[in-house]
Amino acid sequence: MNIKNVLRDKTRNAIFSVTSETTVFEALQQMAEKNIGAVLVIDEGQLSGIFSERDYARKGILQGRSSQSTLIKDVMTSKLITVSSEQKLEEAMLIMSEKHIRHLPVVDEGELIGIISINDVVSSIIKDQKARIQSLESYISGSPY
Question: Per CATH, which fold does 3-141 belong to?
Answer without folding.
Answer: CBS-domain (3.10.580)
